[in-house]
Structure formats: structure tokens, C-alpha cells
């Protein structure tokens, strides 16, 4: 159970409530027994990402406070796509959406408790949408949606200039219908989602009231942005995926380790389960000694452990230390080492015939601008191979130097690092 009498107070302290339908009524509702709530995830990609993680962890906070979660994967809504500012979505095939539904379900199952008195339940809106006739949909759902209200929605207003299909325009009806069905079949009285979903969330609340005279609640979580207001998670490789195949756990860890000082407190509140005192203490220490990056280190360790597990986090921390001379490189598995070196910058070189010498490798990896500079670096004692200082400028590293996975670790000075994969 949460240490807080009412979980809404904790969510507000963490900055997780952007909008709510009736704050006082919601507070009272969450304080009078176990509430059944739901949050939805559309399979628009084969993995969940940073934005979804906000919702997943919010769902877990509510469950830990004694409320009962329903996790909806949108097998039906994923076939349509929520309207977005940038234009029409490309519709994915039914087979692709079905496969992504299963992948998302497997990811979600790791974060919540599916046993016990407040066990989580998985639902798929394809179950109640696929068999619905067009006539029934228009009579039972469409009848309750005034078009003037739908046109007033922000995303729709922005899209009217460039054009919006009837398919995307009617998305709000489908998502609202989810709330109505879950309210009727499971007694769900609370839905939450990202602030970009606010129109859909209130659409569901309205539909339950108009169709059944029911009184239900909704709140939205804020969009997580960088200090300059731009979205997080659009790194060079795309979104910050939770799937280790799409984004290595090492790169995931590095993202959190490198967040701006100005954002650390906010991100600790949103993405960790540290209590208020621990977070305030970390914020104070970080403000006093920002160069120690204590907040970032705590953030990286906690979030990586939540998403990828404690063992993976320990491997990443060992790799980070070992790469800069603080540990044993030979003890690292090739997968972790490879992910770390690709993140730092890696090149390939022949393992057999045509092997490159240390001077050529320093140039090829970008650690030296020219052969002359590379030779000087070796002469001055600033070149390292696998954390061992190189003294011979004519050294030709071979398979006997290769670490697990066929890697060489090159370093110039204390901080400049590169990987060489022998192929």
C-alpha cells in the first residue's frame, strides 16, 4: 500500500496530473475503497516507449495504493490510429497489428501484479469492436457525439486545413466506446492517459453519462519534455524504446545518465518509486554538487532496473566503469560490451589478413586526426588498448587481444573512447 492516505496527493506531488474531470470528486472517489481503472496502449509500433512508461508507472502507483488496473491494448483502435498534428497515419495491416498487440501485452505484463486482491487484467478492444455492425455503431455510439464538439477538438482543428479522413476523425468514438464497455462489463470508473489524449478521455466520460447516466472520472498525465520544451525520446535512433532489441539497455541507461540538471528532480518524481524524502534529498545534493551527477546516477539505475532488471543494470554499471579503467574488461559479456562501444563510437577492422596497426586504428576510430598525431599520442603514453597503455607504435593487435565478441577497446587519455570490432 502507498504511504499516502490518498494516491492522488502523491500523483500531484510527482507532477503526474495535468488535467482531471473534477479534482475533488476524484480525490474522494480514490479515498473510498478500491477503484477499477484503465489505461490504453495502441499498437502503432512493435514496442512501448518512454511516453508509454509514464502511463505504465502511473498504473503501478495506483495498483500499489490498492486500486485495480485494467490494461487495454488497442487491437481495434490500433487499426485506425489516433489523429496527430503531422498528418494521416499509414494504416498497418491486420496481421502486423495483431503481432504488435502480443508484443505489447508481453511488455506490459512485466510491470504490474497479475495476482492478489488487486490483480491486473488485460483487455483488447478488438473483442467488443470486431463484431459490431455499422448500423449499431452509428445508432448506439454516434448518436451521442455532436459534430460541432468533435470539430472543436484541438488536433482536429489543426488538421482541418491540411485535411483529415473520416477514419481518423471518428477515432474518438472508438476510444470513448472502450470506456462505456469497460464501465458496463467491469465496473471501471476511472481512465487516464497522456495529455494529448485529453479530448478522447473526456469523450469517454461524456459517453458514459449520455448513454447510461453513469458518473465516471478521468485524468491526464503531462507530456514529458526537455528543458527547452522539445519532446524527449527523439534521439538519433528514434524513440526511446523499452524493447532491448530496438534500443540496447546500455543506450537506455546512458539516456537517463545524460539528462539535464534542470530536469533531474522532475524525472525522479515521474519515473522512480523513491519516496518524497529520498527524492528531495537527491535534489538538494544535486543542486549543491551538480558535477557529481548523483540525481542522474540514481535515475539511470532505478529506471533501467525497472525496465531491464537489476542484473542488466549491474552489467551496464560494470561496463561503464571498466571502459574507463575502473574494472575488468575481460569479465564483460560481448553483448554489453558491444552495446557500450557502439554507443561510444565503433568501427570494424579485419581480424585476419590486412590487420591494422595501433596507429591506423587510432586514426580509423577517430581518436587521432592523422598518423603523426597517433604516433605522438603513443609516444606521450596517452594511448590505451583494453585499458593497457600502449608503448609500441608498431603494435598490430590480433585475435589474442580481442575481448568477448571480438572487440578491442581503444582509449586516448582518460575520456576519449572508441571500439573496434574485429571481423
TrEMBL record:
GO molecular function: ATP binding; protein homodimerization activity; RNA binding; tyrosine-tRNA ligase activity
UniProt entry keywords in alphabetical sequence: Aminoacyl-tRNA synthetase, ATP-binding, Cytoplasm, Ligase, Nucleotide-binding, Protein biosynthesis, RNA-binding
Family statement drawn from the similarity comment of this UniProt entry: Belongs to the class-I aminoacyl-tRNA synthetase family. TyrS type 1 subfamily.
Domain RNA-binding S4: residue ranges: 357-418
One biological process term in Gene Ontology: tyrosyl-tRNA aminoacylation
Motif ('HIGH' region) on chain: 43-52
Motif 'KMSKS' region, residue numbers: 231-235
Keyword flag ATP-binding: yes
GO-annotated cellular components: cytosol
Function: Catalyzes the attachment of tyrosine to tRNA(Tyr) in a two-step reaction: tyrosine is first activated by ATP to form Tyr-AMP and then transferred to the acceptor end of tRNA(Tyr).
PROSITE patterns named in the record: AA_TRNA_LIGASE_I (PS00178), S4 (PS50889)
Origin: domain of life: Bacteria
Binding site for ATP: 234
Species for this entry: Nocardioides zeae
Subunit-level organization: Homodimer.
Compartments (UniProt record): Cytoplasm
Residues that hold L-tyrosine according to the record: 38, 171, 175
E.C. number(s) listed in UniProt: 6.1.1.1
Catalysed conversion reaction: tRNA(Tyr) + L-tyrosine + ATP = L-tyrosyl-tRNA(Tyr) + AMP + diphosphate + H(+)
Name by which UniProt lists this protein: Tyrosine--tRNA ligase
Amino acid at each position: 500500500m502507498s504511504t499516502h492516505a490518498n494516491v492522488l496527493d502523491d500523483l500531484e506531488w510527482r507532477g503526474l496530473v495535468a488535467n482531471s474531470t473534477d479534482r475533488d470528486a476524484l480525490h474522494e472517489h480514490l479515498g473510498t475503497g478500491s477503484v477499477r481503472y484503465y489505461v490504453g496502449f495502441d499498437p502503432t509500433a512493435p514496442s512501448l516507449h518512454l511516453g508509454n512508461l509514464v502511463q505504465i508507472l502511473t498504473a503501478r502507483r495506483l495498483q500499489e495504493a490498492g486500486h485495480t488496473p485494467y490494461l487495454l491494448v488497442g487491437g481495434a483502435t490500433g487499426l485506425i490510429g489516433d489523429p496527430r498534428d503531422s498528418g494521416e497515419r499509414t494504416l498497418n495491416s491486420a496481421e502486423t497489428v495483431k503481432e504488435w498487440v502480443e508484443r505489447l501485452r508481453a511488455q506490459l505484463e512485466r510491470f504490474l501484479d497479475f495476482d492478489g486482491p488487486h490483480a491486473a487484467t488485460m483487455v483488447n478492444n478488438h473483442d467488443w469492436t470486431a463484431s459490431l455492425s455499422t448500423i449499431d455503431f452509428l445508432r448506439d455510439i454516434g448518436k451521442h457525439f455532436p459534430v460541432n464538439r468533435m470539430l472543436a477538438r484541438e488536433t482536429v482543428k489543426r488538421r482541418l486545413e491540411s485535411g483529415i479522413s473520416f477514419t481518423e476523425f471518428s477515432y474518438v468514438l472508438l476510444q470513448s466506446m472502450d470506456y462505456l464497455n469497460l464501465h458496463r462489463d467491469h465496473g471501471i470508473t476511472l481512465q487516464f492517459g497522456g495529455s494529448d489524449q485529453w479530448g478522447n478521455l473526456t469523450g469517454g466520460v461524456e459517453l458514459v453519462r449520455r448513454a447510461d447516466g453513469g458518473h465516471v472520472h478521468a485524468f491526464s498525465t503531462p507530456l514529458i519534455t526537455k528543458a527547452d520544451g522539445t519532446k524527449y525520446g527523439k534521439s538519433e535512433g528514434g524513440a526511446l524504446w523499452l524493447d532491448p532489441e530496438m534500443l540496447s539497455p546500455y543506450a537506455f541507461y546512458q539516456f537517463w545518465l545524460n539528462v539535464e540538471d534542470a530536469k533531474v528532480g522532475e524525472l525522479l518524481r515521474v519515473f522512480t518509486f523513491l519516496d518524497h524524502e529520498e527524492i528531495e534529498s537527491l535534489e538538494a545534493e544535486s543542486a549543491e554538487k551538480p558535477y557529481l551527477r548523483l540525481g542522474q546516477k540514481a535515475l539511470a539505475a532505478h529506471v533501467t532496473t525497472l525496465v531491464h532488471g537489476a542484473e542488466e543494470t549491474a552489467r551496464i554499471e560494470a561496463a561503464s566503469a571498466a571502459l574507463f579503467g575502473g574494472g575488468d574488461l575481460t569479465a564483460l559479456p560481448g553483448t554489453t560490451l558491444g552495446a557500450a562501444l557502439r554507443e561510444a563510437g565503433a568501427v570494424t577492422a579485419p581480424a585476419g589478413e590486412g590487420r591494422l596497426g595501433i596507429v591506423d586504428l587510432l586514426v580509423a576510430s577517430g581518436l587521432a586526426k592523422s598518423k603523426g598525431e597517433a604516433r605522438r599520442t603513443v609516444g606521450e603514453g596517452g594511448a590505451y588498448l583494453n585499458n593497457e597503455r600502449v608503448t609500441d607504435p608498431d603494435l598490430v593487435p590480433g585475435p589474442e587481444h580481442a575481448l568477448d565478441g571480438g572487440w578491442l577497446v581503444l582509449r586516448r587519455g582518460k575520456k576519449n573512447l572508441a571500439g573496434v570490432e574485429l571481423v
